[in-house]
DUF2642 domain-containing protein (Psychrobacillus glaciei), 224 residues
Amino acid sequence: MNKIIQSLMKEIVQIEVSGKNQINGTVIDLGSDIMVLFNGEDFMYIPIKHVHGFRVGRNNEYDIQYPTEFPSIIADENNQELSIIEVLNQAKGNYVELFVTNDKPLHGYIKQIMSNYFEFFSPIYKTMYISMSHLKWLIPYRQNESPYELGDKKLLQTSNDSLASSFETHVENLKDKIVVLNIGSNNSKIGKIKDVQQQIVEIQPARTQSIYINLDHIQTLHQV
């Protein structure tokens, strides 16, 4: 682990995350590719690849108290460090808040985890597919807490979907389907997937000419 990042343990920091988001919190844990912050209210699991920079606060200038309880997701006893995959696996089937696009968090639960994406159920958008590389942070819900106060059993359901192992192949399998891409972001797109060729996805909107999107920049996808 990077010694500079390791030196932040138990420090109160301000970090800048992709999307120009600034987060203040106490560094609770560090893993191979993820850091855990307590922001005074929630434990936030933030992939290090999305941390653009950080500064250490002075004299608790951010007024954040150290947590009085342990985070719900911790390193497995067989693993010395947390990882993004480990966090997603432990979060699977439990309510979480995700931040993926510019300013709209997603609430729901993870149903399946594949090689570079995961299936997510939202009570608003229903079944979604989210690229792991675009996950900015994950916040586990507290025990007995549920999205929109729908109750513990209202949303949870097992997935019987057979998914492609990679996000790229999954998108290819949705040819001729109408989808919404990057919900909640400024570059959200709605249309039919006409073709997928070498990372380029051709989308047919309702009336205008086809648009072409780099598959690497698809953050979320769901069918309508």
Remarks:
- The two ends are 43 Å apart (CA to CA).
- Helices lie at 3-6, 84-91, 167-172.
